[in-house]
Specification:
Elements: H1 9-20, H2 35-56, H3 66-82, H4 89-108, H5 117-139, H6 141-144, H7 162-181, H8 187-204, H9 207-222, H10 229-248, H11 250-258, H12 263-267, H13 272-281, H14 286-291, E1 299-300, E2 303-304, H15 308-337, H16 342-357, H17 369-381
Helix pairs in contact: 1-2, 1-5, 2-4, 3-4, 3-15, 5-7, 7-8, 7-9, 7-16, 9-16, 15-16, 16-17
């Protein structure tokens, strides 16, 4: 199916999914927003996304997708672990949210054709989110860079944390760079996205997003170097500039990277390692090891887990971890088997970014921006639908006069 035939409301559905995954916790906003109101808006966005996707795909035509099949299987340990209400009724609510989220992706899979349509939707929607961040910084610089977060940029209009903003900025920067290299957008349009997003990324001081951007782009551009002269030139200049920056600005880069932390605090990843050790040392029954404790808020003893693999193990058990591993194996395997192309490069970037960020960010086992990133990768790796064969009309029958229809004239 041609990307140009994708209905425009599909972009609206994608925007509603992005809104749903923004979350309801973060910094204090300029205008105080009750958490219950934010949750109502985000959950309402998901219901609206599912309803609109159902209207657009009323015949329930879907594309076969190993990625979506594995996400559907992930619901099984989630429901089993949440059914005993050990994590409260909120666990069942989160299971319903994940089911609606996956169901919406199934409905949208009809338009997954290996094109960059969903890449463009992804960039537009997250750029709009970043515009709200920039507007908040202009309206109230003090609220946008509070001392509570060490002067790092946060969302002052919508409660967004520095890692969230850094993630959104890094992802759309990488995708925009690849679209330029692939000749699918002009440099001016790309610069309007890349430059302000890069400024916001630097203001967040988010190391995971920065490393994910660099590693993901290296993998993606590396996959294009054999077939794209533009990619080879960009890669060469990038390596040269990185080497010069590493020498000239070594001290400034080190200071930015450490963010004023002590060596001890940096070595244990800002306290994350202590939470991880406590989570792994906690006693668990066999059922809890296999199926997990049920979907929660990605925390342990009131502290954020900040690791996708441990969060999935805690909430969905070893089965959940195995399914998430299978997701990366399936997407990565398909990407490696595809011939070099822009779609393949964008998919590799998203897969590589999510894999690196999973070490210090949670979200691979629940409705989150990371699953949206991987869904875009799955849409890029989908095979175009085979065009229906053109029907050839039967040749017109020649009219035979009545006198000539007899086999013999006597």
């Amino acid at each position: 199916m041609d990307a140009d035939r994708t209905p425009k409301p599909v972009g609206t559905v994608w925007g509603l999914l992005v809104l749903n995954t923004l979350g309801s916790t973060g910094a204090e906003t300029v205008v105080p927003l009750p958490r219950s109101l934010i949750q109502m808006v985000t959950m309402g966005a998901l219901v609206a996304a599912f309803s609109l996707a159902l209207v657009l795909n009323v015949r329930l035509r879907v594309r076969a997708s190993a990625f979506l099949f594995l996400l559907t299987l992930l619901l099984v340990p989630s429901v089993i672990a949440s059914a005993d209400l050990q994590s409260g009724f909120g666990a069942l609510f989160r299971c319903a949210r994940l089911a609606l989220f996956v169901g919406t992706l199934w409905l949208l899979s009809r338009w997954w054709d290996g094109g960059v349509t969903f890449v463009r939707h992804h960039i537009r929607m997250y750029f709009l989110v970043l515009c709200t961040v920039a507007a908040g910084a202009l309206v109230s610089p003090g609220a946008a860079m509070p001392d509570l977060y060490g002067g790092r940029l946060v969302g002052a209009l919508w409660p967004l944390t520095p890692p969230q903003i850094g993630q959104y900025a890094a992802v759309i920067i990488g995708l925009a760079v690849l679209l330029v290299l692939g000749g699918r957008t002009d440099r001016r349009s790309a610069a309007l996205v890349i430059v302000p997003s890069l400024v916001l990324l630097m203001l967040t001081h988010t190391r995971t997003a920065t490393l994910g951007l660099l590693v993901g782009l290296t993998l993606a551009i590396g996959s294009l170097t054999l077939t794209s002269a533009a990619a080879r030139r960009f890669f060469s200049w990038a390596v040269l500039c990185a080497a010069v920056a590493a020498v000239v600005f070594a001290s400034a880069l080190q200071e930015w990277f450490l963010r004023g932390q002590s060596e001890e605090n940096f070595s244990n990843l800002t306290g994350r390692a202590k939470v991880w050790d406590a989570l792994l040392a906690a006693p668990r029954t066999t059922g809890e090891k296999v199926f997990g404790m049920g979907l929660g808020d990605k925390s342990f003893d009131g502290l954020p887990i900040d690791n996708s693999w441990l969060a999935v193990y805690h909430e969905q058990g070893l089965i959940g971890v195995g399914l998430v591993v299978a997701v990366f194996v399936a997407l990565g395997g398909v990407a490696l088997l595809r011939p070099p192309s822009l779609a393949r490069a964008c998919a590799i970037f998203l897969i590589g970014y999510c894999a690196l960020a999973s070490y210090t960010e949670a979200g691979l086992g629940d409705a989150s921006p990371y699953l949206l990133h991987l869904a875009v990768a799955a849409s890029l790796l989908a095979q175009p639908a085979a065009a229906a064969p053109l029907s050839v009309p039967d040749p017109p029958r020649r009219r035979v006069p009545r006198w000539a229809r007899t086999s013999e004239v006597t």
